[in-house]
Predict the structure of Thoeris protein ThsB TIR-like domain-containing protein.
Amino acid sequence: MARKCFYSFYYNEDNWRVSTVKNIGAIEGQPLVSANEFEEIKRKGDKAVADWIAGNMAGRSTVIVLIGTNTASRKWVKHEIKYAFDSGKALLGIHIHRLLDRSGNTSAKGANPFGTFTVGTDKKPLTNWAKTYDPAGVDSKGVYDTIKNNIESWVEEAIRLRG
């Protein structure tokens, strides 16, 4: 049975790439909302967004941050990472900048979104528990194949690290 995971990402820049990863089908992700649906949630305020995130993370073992060019700087991605860690969920990141977008373009590699977080009373780096992967491949298809062939083991490794 496929693991249930939550995808965290920057919708405006990466929704096409995220759909590509989601369609691999190796893990079960939450339904992706449209830009209009998310804007409707945002209009209700920060609490509504936080409640939506909490509701969609419920019952998920792992949060997968799909890392595009600007993902690490996004307010709600940061919130999702913190909420996931505080909720005991496993975390991992996958760079998706070399997958093609709707227009057939790749983008610049983004920063590690876990790199600015420290956790616990001893302020250890979150990167101790949250690995990031930069999939191999000379083109979008190669990157896709690397993700497809490894995403399940990456999720299992994240769960093991979170222990």
